[in-house]
Amino acid sequence: MTAPGESGGFLPFRKPESGVRASLGMHVGYDVLRGSWLRSRLLGDEACRVSELLSAVRRNAVATSLWPGLVVTGVAVVASLTVAGLVPAMSSLTVAVALGILAGNLPGFPRSARPGLAWAMRRFLRVGVVLLGLQLAVSQVFGLGAGTLVAVVILVATSFLGTLVLGRVLGISQGLSMLVGTGFSICGASAIAAMESIIDRDDEDVATAVAMVTIFGTLAMLVLPVVGSGLGLSDTELGRIAGGSVHEVAQVVAAASPAGAAAVAVAVVVKLSRVVLLAPLVTAVSLMQRRTSAAIGGRRPPVMPLFVAGFLAAVLLRSSGILPETVLAVAEQVTTVLLTGALFGLGSSVRIRALIRTGPRAFLLGLGSTLLVTTATFATMLTLT
């Protein structure tokens, strides 16, 4: 018997298979499918094991590549702390940047140390800024009085914005101007280290800003006691002006020391009140960067960097009074070590030729910013306090 075909002809009619034979075919097909599934499952498990093995190998390779740089960083931290101990007017952060620039530009500096130095710079910096908050207590700041706090806010805003304007007039990059303005108005190298991670800048800009903090902070430290004595300032007045105008904490202490312990105590608290403004300043700049990035379609930074939020949390933790003095003392030492290591790594990435190119204009920027912050401090502290 035949059946109609698609083309109008006839095809042989096939008798349906028996039940046994059809069942056998179904089982054979099932076995084939199950075998394929099992093979794919086994291969999938094997692929997962291979992937995990490769991930472990990569992690070990990364860890191994970091060790040379971390060892170099450790040696540099010890050397920087030693020099800073011998020369109290210089902070270990400043020494670390100088040593990093020197080491990074030596012809025989090992390339194998670069990954570890870069890792230390990023990680140590953020943790160090967070721990910096443990040095501040809100009660200390409020104890200065409303007039002093208003004066601090005005002088910080005036110094930062004025430095940006001066940098534009001198034709200096916005990155360098921001770093100099932050360092001079807030707390020197620590503030520069916090700001550099959220703005568009060159490594040479960071080294130049730290160098300006060192040069002009040292000059202010030497000149301010003489000027204060000539103007007949009281111990408290000199302490307020030193805390409001000198950059590094060590330089503030040295500038106020000739006037006695009372002047030093006031100077340090005023200085720390400037440090409190680091978080809102960095957050404001980050918001500005977000708007700029959105306008050009680039990657937008966070509203508040995580390490800045950690800094504020550390301030609140210190203000709660639950941490014993021994813990705070250890945290202060750890902060110094971490920031010293971070700035050594940063300095090692700087190229001296590029640094020299910005020298004269950067010097003028540092001089102008110093005059600006000093003038603003005298004007606000002597009229509002």
From TrEMBL:
GO CC term (a single one): plasma membrane
Instruction: Provide the membrane topology annotation.
Output: Multi-pass membrane protein
Checking Pfam families in the record gives: Cons_hypoth698
Official protein name in the record: Integral membrane protein (TIGR00698 family)
Sections of the chain in a coiled coil: none
- Give the stretches traversing the membrane: 70-103, 124-143, 149-169, 176-194, 206-228, 303-321, 327-350, 362-384
Q: Which domain of life is it from?
A: Bacteria
InterPro entries from the xrefs?
Answer: UPF0324_pro
Family the entry assigns: Belongs to the UPF0324 family.
Which compartments does it reside in?
Cell membrane
